[in-house]
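User: These chains co-purify. Model them together.
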Amino acid sequence: MKIENVKPADIEKRSFEIIAETLEETGIDIDERYAHIIKRCIHTSADFDYARTMFFSEGVEEKIASVIRDGGYIVTDTRMAQSGINKKRIEAWGGKVLCFIGDEDVAERAAKEGLTRSYVSMEKAAELDRPVVFAIGNAPTALIAICQLFEEGKLKPEAVVGAPVGFVNVVAAKKLLISSGISCIVPRGRKGGSNIAAAIINAVQYNM
Amino acid sequence: MKIENVKPADIEKRSFEIIAETLEETGIDIDERYAHIIKRCIHTSADFDYARTMFFSEGVEEKIASVIRDGGYIVTDTRMAQSGINKKRIEAWGGKVLCFIGDEDVAERAAKEGLTRSYVSMEKAAELDRPVVFAIGNAPTALIAICQLFEEGKLKPEAVVGAPVGFVNVVAAKKLLISSGISCIVPRGRKGGSNIAAAIINAVQYNM
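Assistant: Joint model of the two components:
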């Protein structure tokens, strides 16, 4: 197997061509309105399951784009997701990508109350003074916190990318989010991850 | 579907139990010596393909553990992988987790020479004065750079986690690494990612 000679700038383009070809060959029909988001999830994972599992609330992409354009906040549950989101454009619009998981006050309150730090970091995000989009790639407890705080009227996110990964409460937390009435993008099932959450936010901003 | 009431501290334990049960049910037989690494890759991705694709050079885990114990460097190709590696223990041993991808000198040289920043950031790592383990989760060009610099006698990594993801040169770069003689851990095929590279390093350090 030979190394192909592809120019750095062309690698991403060529990757998306291969993804499109593979989808066509395997007969998987994706929603064209969201093709750029679905393909970017496949691009970041090489996992074609994302062609079959993605849920999109009506109008969710425009809501996320509006928050970015209005200089709002993207709040993640992990530093990995925060790292993976391209911040240049978001900061150029006046916005920020925030993550509270490592904050001392979050750790203290979590230990004291027997909650996960993910949960408490969402409570902290409820105090922000600008429109917020959440990008959750790790902790189902973060999604559960968002849904509970929303239910109690304490948090009103513009949209949530609900992409935690794993085996305990992940599927249930995603179902809870989808049925909550919050505008969301969700890779249903156990799969997801910080890379997937970041890829979804990046796909939206690259499409603006 | 109900939210299970699992204590924060028990979520990871319960996840690994579900992974073990699923492997047993599906009859996938993994190498027991590396079960902790394979299971952590599945834990971070919910993707059981990692039970079938992982390659381990003889003695590679001990080599990575030695670098950590000796206060050496872990060098990643992305900030996401750097973020995902648990740094507490590594720093307690006197080591560091480094990533040069965002460095200005790297960007300048890459633009000037028509190389990827990933490639140039590996050249920069060749100048480090301590034992190095690479954790590559994104760029096949980083793996190719490592193999070329090794071939030319300019770089001698103790071990490489070769987990780039994608569609252009990823499979070929992994084959190149496996046949290079460098001690390595590789999820063969197109899959991998910054989360997988970080999970592998974390699995090794949690087993020390």
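DSSP finds eleven helices and six strands in chain B.
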